[in-house]
Each structure stands twice: as C-alpha cells, then as structure tokens.
UniProtKB/TrEMBL annotation:
It comes from Microbispora oryzae. It comes from the Bacteria. This is Beta-lactamase family protein. Residues 351-433 form the DUF7586 domain. PANTHER family: D-ALANYL-D-ALANINE CARBOXYPEPTIDASE, D-ALANYL-D-ALANINE-CARBOXYPEPTIDASE/ENDOPEPTIDASE AMPH. Residues 19-329 form the Beta-lactamase-related domain. Transmembrane segments: none annotated.
C-alpha cells in the first residue's frame, strides 16, 4: 500500500504541529493505519535533542489494560475460565468475590477506582498479594452491574488472575503470548532507549518538571507498559481484526461490543470487554471506534481503530496534561476528507440454489422485509422501509441459520415447509411470502374472511 499523498501528509503534520505548539507539549508523535499498515507518521518536539521517531518509546498508561484483557480472553477461549465466573473462583482472597470477570472487564463491577494509600501512579507499588490484602469491603462502591464506574483496581486484579492461571508474571505472559507473536518487541514494562522522559509543563511559564517513573507492582496491569508508534500501529491493526494467531477475530469483535455507556442515552463514549468505545461523525460518515486512551504522570496516549473502514489512529505525548481532545478524530477526518476510501469492487459470487430460492420479499404481518444472500450461505433480513428489525444470519450444519446481530442475535431462523407453502420461523416470529398468508400457520390465525 502507498503512503498518503503529499498534500494529505502536510495537512496531517500541520494538525500535529499546531497541537504541539498550542498545547506546549515537549514531544508528540502520531500515526495513521490503513488496512493493517502505517500510511503516515508525524512527530514534533524533541526527545534528547532529536525529533521523535516511530521507535521512540512513550508510556501508554491505561492502553496496558487492553493487553491484560486480551490475556483474559485467551484464557476464556482455552476453557480455563468463563466470563460469568465470579472473581472469587480464581482469586479466593479478594474482598469482592461475587463480581464477575465480565463485569470487571467492562468496569461495571462497582469496584473502587483507585488503590488504598498514596496515589499509585506517582509512587512505587507493592506486590499483588500485599495490594489485595489492603482491599476491604469498601472496595465495592456500587452494586455490581448497576452502572459504569472505571476501576484501575479491577484491572490490577485481572492481571493477578492472569498471573495465577499462567503461573507466571502477567507481563511475561503478555510478552510471550501477545507481543512476541505480533512482532511488538519495543513494548516493554519499563523504558528502554530511546525513550521520552515524562514531564509536567508549568501552567504559566515554558518550563518543565520531571515526573516520577516507578514499577507499580500489583497495580502495574492498570498502566505500566511503554510502547512505540510502530508497535502501537500493529496493536491498532490487531484491535481492528488482524489478530494473527493470538486471538480469534470473532473474540476481538466480541470485545468491541458495547457493554456499558459513559454518557447517557445518545452515547458517544462506552466500554466493551477491556476496550473503550467511541462514536464519531465526520466527513467519512459515522464511525464506531474501539481502542483505549492512556495517561500516567508525564504521558498521554490514545489508540483508536475503526474496523468497518479499516483505518486506525494513534498518538503519544510526554506531558502530564494539555493535549486537547479531538486530535485523534481530527486526524481521521483529515484523512477521510483528503483521501476517502474507495468501496471494494463488486463482483458476482455463486449462491446455492436453495439459498437463492429464499431471497426476495417476505412479510411479518403486513410489514415487508427483504431477504438477501450473503457469502457462505449467509442471509440478511432487513425491513423494506427501514422501520423494523435488521439481522444477519449464519448457516448452521443442521440446516438452520443463527442470528449474528440485532434483535435476533443468537436466535434461530428455520425454513418451514408445509403442504400450503413455505415460511420462515425466527424464534416464533413467522415470515410469509404474502402478508398474512392464510395457508401458513400464522400465530393467532388469520381472519377467514381475509383482506376486505
């Protein structure tokens, strides 16, 4: 794949340059990924007197949580745990044993946000066993499942769960099972040269204050890792579905499904299983983004991917605060405005005759629906006028179809053939070839006098 056009690169670099200058950031790097490959990188500022590069390390803070979450999902896929397992089944010494693993992953377990004692992000950490020993009943701030409440402590506990199930430190498991297979050798628990130092910028003068960097022990799974733009670009591609042999793409798609929202009915921010979610409307149309933000004293970072468009954005900075919200989506908007993606070329594909016979109009009562054929004997059921339930279905070995999304997700579609004709039964919802076909067993029957 080619890089972006020179005019696009100039517009992208200008946006990064404006942010670095206006927000007074010691150094700032950003990159865009398309179809799994970096198509643009830009950096401003200085690290040890030199411009930052794709191999300059920055601390990525809570993006660390996404690696821990992938480890948990690997354990789930191996059958070593269930997401509905109570935490106490695997960590019997925790004071909140009834919170489920899924609730901790989605920050809906009601756990406290921070660990007891001095603020963990600026102080050395105790081992996990000591951390757990300091937690008490007050660690439960809300009824599990009641609301979204972000919890660093929760991911510290998940890191310990990974360590116990793997009989190895959580970061070693991440390195051996995720980073090495994906070629992310520059992602480490502690910094390696060349790396940016973390700073606070004085609010009223152009001077810096170095921020501390420590090993946070039991809290490390909440925000310990360092990474580079090159490695984070590979991680963005992973979160978008290019998972290699680390995790099934279907599992990552499950992680991207909304489990909680942060900001009300018309949500723009939410959370899945270890992944932050965002919705954005820009020149490229509506986007559903998945990824994570990160902040630690002296550092800020963000990675977002849009699987539907095959595009991702990331940036990292060595400042405690100041980078304005919107840098990430601005870069996506510039790319979409200057170089909108081309739709994939249409080409004919074979359809089995029995599937082809099912396509076309169907009626749920008087409401018209359209059934279309999808690859691999799949089906798509959509309302003709846009008002109604839309779902896709995957063919099963027993001749039925399983709902993949929408209202009918997880439900079964059956083709029922009777002497009077054929109809579809989707978990008791009957679809007929004519509105209220009297020859089909419509639930409740059809008035014998018919339409009049």
């Amino acid at each position: 794949m080619r890089m972006v056009l020179e005019t696009t690169a100039r517009a992208l670099l200008r946006r990064v340059a404006v942010e670095q200058a206006y927000s007074r950031v010691p150094s700032l790097v950003a990159a865009l990924v398309r179809d799994g490959r970096t198509v643009w990188f830009g950096g401003r500022g200085r690290v040890d007197g030199e411009p930052p590069t794709e191999r300059t390390q920055y601390r990525i803070g809570s993006i660390t949580k996404t690696f821990v979450a992938v480890m948990v999902m690997r354990l789930r896929d191996e059958g070593l745990l269930d997401l509905l397992d109570p935490l106490g089944k695997h960590l019997p010494d925790v004071p909140v044993p009834d919170v489920t693993i899924a609730q901790v992953l989605s920050h809906t377990g009601g756990l406290t946000a921070e660990a007891p004692g001095p603020w963990w992000e600026r102080t050395p950490g105790a081992p996990a066993a000591e951390l757990i020993a300091t937690l008490g009943a007050e660690s439960a701030r809300h009824r599990p499942g009641r609301r979204y409440h972000y919890s660093n402590v929760g991911f510290a506990l998940l890191g310990e769960l990974v360590a116990r199930r793997r009989a190895a430190p959580w970061d070693r498991a991440v390195r051996e099972e995720i980073l090495e297979p994906l070629g992310m050798g520059d992602t480490t628990p502690r910094p390696r040269p060349p790396h940016a130092d973390g700073y606070a910028v004085h609010p009223w003068a152009d001077i810096l204050l170095p921020e501390p960097e420590n090993d946070h022990g039991g809290m490390a799974p909440a925000g310990q890792l360092w990474s580079t733009a090159a490695d984070l670009a590979r991680w963005a591609a992973f979160l978008g579905g290019d998972t290699g042999d680390v995790l099934r793409p279907e599992t990552v798609a499950e992680m991207r499904e909304p489990a909680a929202v942060e900001d009300g009915d018309t949500w723009s921010r939410g959370y899945g299983l270890g992944l932050q979610l965002a919705r954005h409307h820009g020149p490229g149309g509506p986007r559903r983004l998945a990824g994570h933000t990160g902040s630690m004293p002296g550092f800020l970072a963000t990675v977002w991917t849009d699987p539907a468009d095959g595009v991702a954005v990331l940036w990292m900075a060595n400042t405690t605060s100041g980078v304005r919200g919107g840098l990430d989506t601005d870069l996506l908007d510039i790319l979409a405005e200057h170089e909108p993606p081309l739709p994939a070329e249409w080409s004919p594909r074979p359809v089995d005759e029995d599937v082809l016979a099912l396509t076309g109009p169907w009626y749920w009562g008087p409401a018209p629906y359209m059934l279309r054929a999808l690859p691999r004997r799949g089906l798509s059921l959509t309302p003709v006028n846009g008002q109604g339930r839309t779902s896709r279905f995957a063919a099963q070995a027993d001749g039925t179809w399983l709902g993949l999304d929408g209202y009918y997700a997880g439900e079964t579609l059956q083709v029922v053939r009777t002497p009077g004709g054929v109809h579809l039964d989707v978990n008791t919802f009957v679809f007929t070839r004519e509105p209220y076909d009297a020859d089909v067993p419509v639930p409740g029957g059809v008035d014998p006098q018919g339409w009049r």
